[in-house]
TrEMBL record:
Domain of life, source organism: Bacteria
Protein name: DUF1934 domain-containing protein
Length: 139
């Protein structure tokens, strides 16, 4: 049975011309060889969304969002993968090209996770994003 740890998460997203930051409390646990991080995101315009990050062997990252916004994105270094994003307005498909994924210390309940990716709709580049998550044990 996996051991769950409550953690504090500081998330920073940089898309070149826009930088956002927010904090959340979440759960970190390891099941077999996969590290899971779950937290709730609240946005005044989008409502609540539960985020689950799965960090798998081989630097594979999957992000599943469920709530007012739903998405399923896979990040594989140096590969282009298909992603799905759904809102009340409909479902869209995107391609994600991942430049880099790095992480450290997550098995101890603290550390960091970062990834850099480009988001495409067809062949049109929508943006380049760098996400950084700093994870510390909750008090």
């Amino acid at each position: 049975m996996p051991t769950k740890r409550w953690v504090n998460i500081r998330i920073e997203s940089d898309s070149g011309d826009e930088r956002t930051q927010f904090s959340a409390k979440g759960e970190l646990y390891i099941k077999k060889d996969t590290t899971y991080l779950r937290y709730e995101e609240t946005d005044s315009s989008d409502g609540k969304t539960m985020n689950t990050l799965k960090l798998m062997p081989g630097e594979l990252l999957r992000i599943i969002r469920r709530g007012e916004i739903e998405s399923d994105l896979n990040f594989v270094p140096n590969e282009r993968t298909l992603g799905i994003y759904s809102t009340g307005y409909g479902r869209m498909e995107f391609d994600v090209y991942t430049h880099k994924i790095s992480f450290s210390g997550l098995q101890q309940g603290m550390g960091n996770l970062s990834w850099h990716y480009d988001l495409f709709e067809g062949e049109n580049l929508l943006g380049s994003f760098k996400i950084t998550m700093d994870i510390t044990p909750a008090d």
